[in-house]
Design brief:
By secondary structure, this protein is of the alpha+beta class. The chain has two helices and seven strands; from the N terminus they run ββααβββββ. The longest helix has 9 residues. The chain starts with a strand and ends with a strand.
Amino acid sequence: MKFELEDDYIELFKLLKVTGVAESGAHAKILIDEGQVKRNGEVELRKRAKIVSGERIEVGDEVIEVETK
């Protein structure tokens, strides 16, 4: 899926929540803590990592491509 940034960046756990990959912010943080989230192919463990345009986030079969609005 594609996600259009409205600002310069979005924090990782918020991205998972607003795209519906996670049911809530708490669920998003659990997914990140468990190492289930990849950022550009690498496991990302920082919940508040700043995700910018051009990045690719993967959680299981879900892929989020972040782009500028």
